[in-house]
Amino acid sequence: MDLLGSAQDPWTWQGVLLAVAVILVILAALNTAAAQWAERRHPPKGAFIEVDGVRLHYSDRGSGRPVVLIHGNAVTGDDYNTSDVAERLLGTCRVVIFDRPGFGHSDRPRWRPWEAFEQAELLHKALVQLGVQRPVVVGHSWGTLVALALAIRHPSDTAGLVLLAGYYFPTLRLDALMVAPGAIPVLGDILRYTVSPIFGWLTMPLTKRVMFAPAPVTSRFQAEYSTAMAMRPSQIRAMCMEGTWMVPDAMRLQGHYGALAMPVTIMAGDGDKIVSHRLSERLAAAIPGSTLHIISGAGHMVHHVATDRVVAAILTTESAADPIASQAPGSKAPMARGGANAVA
């Protein structure tokens, strides 16, 4: 039997390629169906606003000083509900949460870079439409880049910053190289509709542990975080794009830190396995008058593990800002400071 000749038979290789193509089509169909199922299981809880042709999903609740919560990568705006940060602020603040472009139920039009400054401009225009004036802006992880970009571009419209477990200075990031193929046009599209969701599902238990380490994953995060929503092809694309933009964005932002004049509070866990807390220490040194809190025993999800301290820091930053109150449409009058939901 001529094995070499058989291997060189063009019809044999055509058969292999056809089989691979069929498998990829089947995977794409299954992943598309899984994404649609996830969206039916997790419908939007808030409202929608259109800004520059982009449909953003957001929630706007409560009364008092406006606070804007900007989530990180791999999660959605609902992460601030799962951590209980939003709920604890509602007694004294107007709380606005966005799903950033491509996450949750917000659109992410193609062929736009969606780096930190562009996302900041989009959210600023959305805040203007919503009548939110001079909010305290809270960012977690990748969301700190957007929060900083917003404060740099619109300092007079930003009353203060609270930055949680952020990435502020360029460093060597192997994870950025790992997700880079998913950000490449065509190749990334093939991957995110076929093998990337499978890989994401298999590695998610480890990913969660790393996000929270050295603390355990909280029971509420385990119960409420939707892997199915995170593994939709649309959100995988957003996550890969942001992984590749992280280092360039930090390079663009770092020269502006010293000019920030509003109250800035910086928090990080001393055990963070994703972003070293040393970057938070460097940022505190770069921003005159900023306040730094390093939380012992906390990891990257510091707002889930040290919720009381995070909420207290937000309220302290809010108190140090100029007194401007506002009210979400349909909200009741604001409670007096020190009410049942206030944090000492």
Question: How would you characterize this protein structure?
Answer:
With 344 residues, this protein is α/β, with parallel strands linked by helices. It has one domain: Rossmann fold (3-Layer(aba) Sandwich). Helix content is 47%, strand content 15%. Strands 1, 2, 3, 4, 5, 6, 7 and 8 form an eight-stranded mixed beta sheet that branches. α6 links the parallel β4 (136-140) and β5 (160-164). The termini are far apart. 46% of the residues are buried.
Tell the overall outline: globular
Provide a count of the helices.
Answer: 15
Determine Rg (CA atoms, Å). 22 Å
- Indicate how many domains the architecture comprises: 1
SSE series:
HHEEHHEHEHEHHHHHHEHEHHE
| CATH class (first level) name | Alpha Beta
Q: Low-confidence parts, pLDDT < 50 over ≥5 residues?
A: 333-344
Number of strands: 8
Named CATH topology: Rossmann fold
Residues in β-strands, percent? 5-15%
Sheet of most strands: 8 strands, mixed
CATH superfamily: Alpha/Beta hydrolase fold, catalytic domain
Helical content (DSSP H or I, runs of 4+) = 40-55%
Quick synopsis:
This is Alpha/beta hydrolase. The protein is built from 15 helices and eight strands. It is α/β, with parallel strands linked by helices and 344 residues long.
